[in-house]
Every structure is written in structure tokens, then in C-alpha cells.
Amino acid sequence: MQIALLTRNDSTFRRIKNAFEADGMPDCVRYTDELGLIRSLERSPPDLVIIESETEFSTSNLVLAWRACHFRQDLPVMMIGQWWDSVSMTNALHAGVDEIVVGEFRLEEIVARGRHAVERRRGERTAQSIITLGSSTLYRATREFVTLDKRVRLTAREFSIAWLFFSHPGALITRKELAHAVWGKELDIAGRSLEQHIYKLRAKLELDEHSGLTLRTVYSLGYMLEQIEAPHRRDLCTTRAPRAQMAEAVS
């Protein structure tokens, strides 16, 4: 079993590596930055990813973003940290982290939870094939965006971006996250292509106030996919109200 461990702490890496080796899993590779880890995931995904974050869970975790837009829900992610509070633990679980170990490192627990995460995720390679928000659905098998009145075929990269946004509705996805997760590059290299793809995606999917979904730009940070009430629905509500009042008056 191959393990990818993201940590900047030499002692943490040695202790965890030795613990897995003692349990018969000698292949533990260290990474010190998320982009380096993501690039390795694209070439040769491990069986388990362990991420050290000492004080809190970051909602902009790039590894989870990569896993979402590359449809690798079979890849288990475990996070460890000494000073997490209950809010960070809750946020991590909601974001899709499989296992969490907090407090003083208990190596036996890390190994046991790691094995459990791998077993639980095994066989989930094609678990999720569609995502629906309101009246809009993404179909992974055909890379299509489907609504009540249209069907749009997307390129592989466009679909990866759309899937990432649909997986995290209402959440800010930074430009850095998109560059790392979708392109596997630094933002200063992928930035121009990223902006072009966002522009094309908005146009293709008609993500505006009339569709019930809008892709909002958060100035200097990134983008957020939001569900909104389409105008025709608001009009329908306002026309129904007077009729209801008239019915009550007659009765």
C-alpha cells in the first residue's frame, strides 16, 4: 500500500513512516507542498493521502478539490493535527475528509484509521456519476449539462471545472484552487487560460439570473456557484398571490 504524506515536519514524517513500516506498509512518500502532491496524484495516485494541518482545517484544501474535479472519490484522505477545534473537525468532515486524528499523535490510531479509510473507499471509483442542482444536472458519463430545455456537451476541462463548482455550491473556490486542481499548475501560469474557461463556461451554461444558477466572481479571490430564484418563478409567485386573496374574499 502506497501512502502520500503531506507535512513540513521532519519528525512527523519519520514517526508516521516508521509506524506504517512496522505494520507492513513500507511505501510512504513525503511531500512538503500541495502542488507537488497534486502533480504526483495525476501521475501515480497512492492508496492513501495523509495531510498534516496543525491548527485547523482549511476549507480551501487543494487535494480535496483535485479529488472532486478528477472524480477520484475512491482516493481516501486523512487529516491529522494537534490543535483542531470542533468547528474545524466539522468543516473537514463536511468537505469529504475520510478520517481525522487530532491531539497528541497516537501512531497506532493513525495506522488503524488509515487502513479503515482505504477499505471503506475501495470500489468507489464510479460511485457518483451525476450531480443535480435545482433543474440543472451534470452527467459525468457523457460530459453533459442538462436542464429542462437544453443539453450542452462540455470539453473535458470545462466539465472538470463545472463538476468542482457543482460539488461545492455556495462555497468560494479560489483561482489558486482551480489552477492547482484542474491544471496542476501555479496560478501565474494557468491564470489566463482559467479566465477564458470561466468565461466560456458562463456562456455555454447560461449561468445568470435567468437560469436559477449564477457563477459569481468574488473580487481578487475566485468564484462562487450560487442557486438563485429565476425571474419567471418570482413572477409566477406574484401573479398567484392576488388570485389567492380573491379566492379567500369570495369564500
Automatic annotation (TrEMBL):
PROSITE patterns: OMPR_PHOB. Its main location: cytoplasm. Residues 128-227 bind DNA. Residues 128-227 form the OmpR/PhoB-type domain. The lineage of its organism: Bacteria, Pseudomonadati, Pseudomonadota, Betaproteobacteria, Burkholderiales. InterPro entries: CheY-like_superfamily, OmpR/PhoB-type_DNA-bd, Sig_transdc_resp-reg_C-effctor, WalR-like, WH-like_DNA-bd_sf. One of its GO terms (biological process) is regulation of DNA-templated transcription. It is found in: Cytoplasm. The keyword Cytoplasm applies. SMART domains: Trans_reg_C. GO terms for cellular component: cytosol; protein-DNA complex. The keyword Cytoplasm applies. One of its GO terms (molecular function) is transcription cis-regulatory region binding. This is DNA-binding response OmpR family regulator. Keywords: Cytoplasm, DNA-binding, Phosphoprotein, Transcription, Transcription regulation, Two-component regulatory system.
